[in-house]
Design brief:
Elements (H helix, E strand, L loop, with lengths): L2 H7 L2 H8 L3 H21 L23 H14 L3 H8 L3 H21 L8 H10 L4 E10 L6 H7 E2 L4 E11 L4 E4 L3 E2 L4 H8 L2 E9 L10 E6 L12 H24 L14 H27 L1
Parallel strand pairs: 1-6, 6-7
Antiparallel strand pairs: 1-3, 2-3, 3-4, 3-5
Helix pairs in contact: 3-6, 4-6, 5-6, 6-11
Length: 307
């Protein structure tokens, strides 16, 4: 029996546990993923080399047979963050073959989420165009760090080391709305880059009326068009007034929703635990996918509420 038949087709709870998606979400994603895979395999081999002649049917000896098994393979890899040797044992293939499949399927999964319209914007220009269509919007901005192995190169060690977290990291900042939908995901930065610097380099422009909630890491960041709401910082050798403390409590109660969003994104252990992928592009792609899967789950949850 295939792992797909045992986990997805026959067991709702196990599907949710090892893919982060419910069955209906899995099949919704599968429709687009299947079309993209078939088009890819028709013109390219697993390593991305262009075929001399289009191939219209999968080889019977292929190590992952069927698009359902392929989607399950890449989702379980992201959700559980296993070693490639362990993933190979589960799907009966070598570690080298797991590496090939991961590099092949990650971009296809990313593109699937983009086609479904649940991928976060990556450029401030596209974000601005989307926000123009909406009415007055409240957005939260915050950074999410991910641990990475220490590089053997000394200069890269210094660049990736976060003095605040005392670890080697990469990080992104996220813009989400009051309902928990993520509208923007920044490029991936090294751990040594300050949160405010990341935001300033993005060169945001917001439609008039946008309210942006920040923490003290973004103190002084005031993008064009947005009304900024930041907690009061305690002055040296003085105390905050009662009104300022109450204001900080109110902002904190609102901003806790951001932590819930991050918790949902980090259902994928590959962005929660130390990531083993060394390729910079792949590290960025897995975060894009984690955000896209969060938005996909959010979309289904909203549809259930409306129905």
């Amino acid at each position: 029996m295939k792992i797909y038949d045992k986990v997805v087709r026959n067991n709702y709870q196990e599907c949710l546990a090892i893919t982060s998606l419910a069955k209906e979400e899995f099949f919704y994603l599968l429709e687009v993923f299947s079309d993209l895979w078939e088009n890819y395999y028709k013109h390219y081999d697993l390593k991305g080399n262009i075929r001399q002649k289009p191939k219209f049917k999968e080889d019977a000896r292929i190590s992952l047979c069927g698009t359902e098994e392929k989607l399950l393979f890449i989702l379980t890899y992201l959700k559980e963050n296993p070693t490639q040797q362990y993933q190979g044992l589960l799907f009966r293939m070598s570690q080298g073959k797991v590496s090939i499949w991961v590099k092949c399927l990650l971009p296809i999964l990313q593109q699937s989420l983009e086609i479904l319209g649940v991928a976060a914007h990556r450029t401030p220009c596209n974000l601005y165009k989307t926000l123009l269509v909406l009415s007055k919007t409240v957005l939260w901005i915050d950074a999410s760090e991910r641990n990475i192995p220490r590089s053997q190169d000394y200069e890269r060690q210094q660049y990736e080391y976060s003095g605040k977290k005392k670890q080697h990291m990469v990080k992104n900042h996220i813009l989400s709305d009051e309902n928990g939908y993520i509208w923007y995901l920044s490029p991936t930065y090294a751990g040594s880059i300050h949160d405010k610097t990341m935001a300033e380099e993005s060169e945001y422009i917001f439609p008039e009326g946008t309210i942006l909630l920040e923490d003290l890491g973004y103190l002084g960041f005031k993008p064009e068009g947005a009304e900024v709401l930041t907690p009061f910082k305690k002055p040296r050798n003085r105390e905050l007034s009662e009104a300022q403390k109450q204001c900080n409590k109110t902002i904190s109660a609102i901003r806790v929703k951001v932590e819930h969003v991050f918790a949902s994104v980090k259902r994928l252990r590959i962005v929660k635990d130390k990531i083993r992928l060394k390729n910079t592009e792949m590290r960025d792609i897995v975060m894009v996918i984690a955000v896209g899967l969060h938005n996909l789950r959010w979309k289904f949850r909203q549809n259930l509420h409306h129905n």
